[in-house]
Design goal:
Helix content is 35%, strand content 16%. It has 360 residues and is α/β, with parallel strands linked by helices.
Length: 360
Amino acid sequence: MTEVYNFSAGPAMMPKAVLEQAQKELLNWLDQGTSVMEVSHRGKLFMELVTQAEADLRKLYNIPENYHVLFLQGGARGQFAAVPMNLKGKKGKALYLNSGHWSATAIKEARNFIEIDEINILDTEPQLKVNRLDFSDVADQYDYVHYCTNETISGVEIFDIPNVGDTPLIADMSSDILSRGIDISKFGMIYAGAQKNLGPAGITIVIIHDDLLGNARQDTPSIWNYAVQRDADSMINTPPTFAWYLCSLVFKHLLAEGGVKATEERNLAKAALLYDYLDSSKFYHNTVAKENRSLMNVTFTTGQDELNAKFVAEATACGLQALKGHKVLGGMRASIYNAMPIEGVQALIKFMQAFEQQNA
């Protein structure tokens, strides 16, 4: 069988070692004779797992003590609503930075709950490029400032942290969390759907400063109320226990592999390899400015829809899966999250070279 590399944007591939451990423990977790999916989420063993998972995540990301970590449901889309429900304050409005599809989707949802001022921070000509990150002159007008660190569809990543003064900065890091080092203390809150770098779909991480808890509007449903979830250990209802378990294995795996610093070095090497090839090719094109090229989602095109379709079909037949670009943008997209080994990128480039020779 041809070696298969999964370039899906999400749900994405997970570390092979993690899946193998889960497979080994599936029917007999911790010698209990049952699966982790079959035990009480409030039982001693699962609560120990929960405690250790949070400790491991805190170690990986150097999360300060004055931040709480919540393991919630509903994905990032759920947080698009939960953020304004919890963080709307006396000023009654928030600033949202629009850099692409997902930040625009967050804006649309947030308008149901709070007055929004929107600033487009993305230039589209001649390349996609973030044009502004200093909002210190206006941020104090708002209860919070929100942005998306990595747009999976267009392959645009924002590496510098926006300057918002003392206003809480909220970041949707669903597609680049744990991919590179960040200073958590610069943020009021970070949230991320798990299905890119943390684990399977079904669980969402929220890292939130203590000062932002307890301010939810009165009609906020309990399940979306951060303070309620904090007080209930993220278990106001039965949590997605298997997803939580898999996240715990991913955290341990990343620590064993050298932590976030080593992960970032691997991600930089993978991205550089692929972008260097794209830059050397006259056949493929990437439309993102170098300073905003995503380390996680590399977009490219031949410029011809029929040729793009042929590329995706032939790549799939060669074991290079899920390279079709998002329907919003088209073309191709190689998602090279933490779990993608450099061998997968090398295999992709080898195929791209052969396809270029045959179709140029």
